[in-house]
Amino acid sequence: MIYNKYNCIRKFLLALILCLVALPVSRFISPRAIVDGSTLFLVWLPLNVTLAIIFLFGRHGIIPLIISFAVLNEYTFHLPHTEAAVLLFCELFPVFAVCTIVRWRLGARWRHCMPNSDIAVRVAWIGFVAPCGIKASMYIAATWFNYPIKISNFFGSGTIIFSIIDIQSLICAALIFTMIVYYLLRMIINPRFARKFWYRNRQPFLSAKKRLFMLGWLGALVAAVTILCAPFKSDYIAGYLVPIIFILFTMGISWLSYSFITLSWSVSAFMLLAYNNNFLQGVNSDYSLAFVMSVLISFTICMLYMMQVFRRSEWLKRRWKLQAMSDPLTGLPNLRALEKQMEQQPNGVVCCLHMKNMEFLSKHFGLMMCVHVKRSVARKLQPLLQGGERFFQLPGGELLLWLNGPETEARLQHMTDFLNSRRILWNNVGLEIEFGASWGVLHMCGEALHQMLGQLSWLAEKASAGHQVLALTNSLQAVAGQTTNRVLQLNKVKRALDENGIQLYGQPVVDAQGKGYQEILTRLISNGEIMMPDQFISVITQFNLGTRFDMLVVERLLQWMQQHPHTSKYARFSVNLMPLTLMQKAFASQFLALFEHYAIAPQTVIIEITEEQAFSNSEVSILNILQLRQAGFKIAIDDFGTGYANFERLKRLQADIIKIDGCFVRDILQDQQDVMIVKAICELAKANSFTVVAEYVENEAQRELLLEAGVDYLQGYLFGKPQPLTDGE
């Protein structure tokens, strides 16, 4: 409370001192002219002092202004108390009223961001309404009070042209000279502002691009103003140099700062009006003077709006450039920004941070989950970064990190361990994401840069499996070979799918009597070369070709079944679906349409899906499985017991068949624990009316033990290896 009181007193005294000094000085130096035999202000600078004090001190400047104007009027005019009070009212009340309206229009911070913010409101109210309000109040006061002859013309007793020029002088003052008075008073109050103002406005002179223009522009302006203000007269000077001054300021708008332009124009206009022998050369009538004043007012308004438009365009340009250099969702810099960074720092260390399972999780939880994870990673690691180090956005489950400091590998390993030790939450669900990283020194741009980023990406993906950090410099040849082979494999797979190079194989799945169906296994044929599943499955998964692959396999199977009809209503084949296939909204309808097209009964084909799909929380996957079951398909859960499955989930499983994974079958003769697991699964499956299939059965002893444990169907090399589908099943 005491501090606030002291602060108010300090502001009051400071404003009072400034007013008592600035008002007489401003009135004394205000340019004048003789109109109708009377002295007339071309610019009434006390109005600028009034506005500047209000801009600087706000409401704390009102009383100092009243006191200072009262003292100045008393010293200058010696009016009776009533006339003095009315004159004081006419000088200040319109300004106070206009400032109140502007504050109401613009808000409490109306005195900030001047003069470049809300230019229309400021020009209209402060530049026109306030001056017109002053003159209107003086004209009204003249109807009741008589003022001395030396100031009566200001109260409307003069000619019309005198009144017009009088109003123009106030408008000129408000529009042209307010900011220079504001800057000068603010520099007096706060010398630090003077230094900041100087450093900000000297930048164009220090810039190599702008220095020559700045020196030429300033030299031309000083020369033109000096000649126009010279004591000798010439009929040609004003006609040629005044337009040049207007041209110079128009050119300077795109090169100079807002404050420098307004200051330069204020100084130039003051010099032209104060020393007006050449500037007003040929102005032989009051009407010509009114026209010249109108030109100054019009050019000032045009210049203010041109500066506003230019600043707006520059702001938009910077904003568009920033948007072009950043990802709109994550807000992180993109590859274009990385290329820009490399131009500034050619030899930089780039790290690729890979997030394993990100692509699957983004399919499951949606795109915004991926965005949330990347934002979280950048936020968590930001305290570990040094100056100039930052993240860059990459598509998919990767981020780039630009590092400057030493011990890159150790720092990156610490970051990776930090991320792997914490879980990122999405809608209160912990995400299972594993992090790995790779790094390398970049010396290249263009196509070579993107190739190297691809190598870093491959290396980071390998590193994520073991939470490692791998250096590209130590394995460049191997990585280059691996990435090249990956691209070749992708081309082979695409060619096989484009040419429908799909070869179907069948492996028997039989019961105790040797009857059953066949599981469809697939080989791809590309340029006559047979590709095994271990060669193409990972490529299909990585590059999201799973749905296309599954639909081609199913269609090839249906074509075969149509060519080889069977009267049995029981299942003849089972077919596997890739993990992401069931996540496609239109999959079930497309799948059923194929069976309808080839006239194949759904009961003849079993659909095998993974535990990941069966226990997924994806509404699309659940809906697709429900539609397929309602259509008559049996659903089998492949590799049961190794991933998402547990006994609680088995109770609510929407399926018909479970296939026990081979890891429980291979050593079942030696491992009693495997026997117990298989028996437990079979007992719970029977309770829920599930059919049980055991994989990887390779000898008779395994067969007997599994049948005894309650397994319904068996599959493995004991009953036959996968064989191509031929004319006979």
Keywords:
729 residues, EAL domain, c-di-GMP-specific phosphodiesterase class I (Or its enzymatically inactive variant), alpha/beta, EAL_dom, elongated, 5-stranded mixed beta sheet, 8-stranded mixed beta barrel, Alpha-Beta Plaits
Describe this structure in words.
The chain crosses the membrane at residues 84-102, 123-147, 159-185, 212-230, 236-253, 258-275, 287-310. It is a multi-pass membrane protein. It is found in: Cell membrane. It comes from Kosakonia oryziphila. It holds the Pfam family EAL. It is a single chain. It is built from 27 helices and 19 strands. The protein is an alpha/beta fold and 729 residues long. The chain has four domains: 1-189; 193-324, no CATH class; 335-472, Alpha-Beta Plaits (2-Layer Sandwich); 489-724, EAL domain (TIM Barrel, Alpha-Beta Barrel), CATH 3.20.20.450. Strand 1 and strand 2 form a beta hairpin. Helix 3 (62-77) packs antiparallel against helix 4 (81-106), helix 5 (119-142) crosses helix 7 (160-189) and helix 22 (587-598) packs parallel to helix 24. It is elongated and about 130 Å long. The N and C termini lie far apart (97 Å). Mean pLDDT is 82; it is low at 474-483.
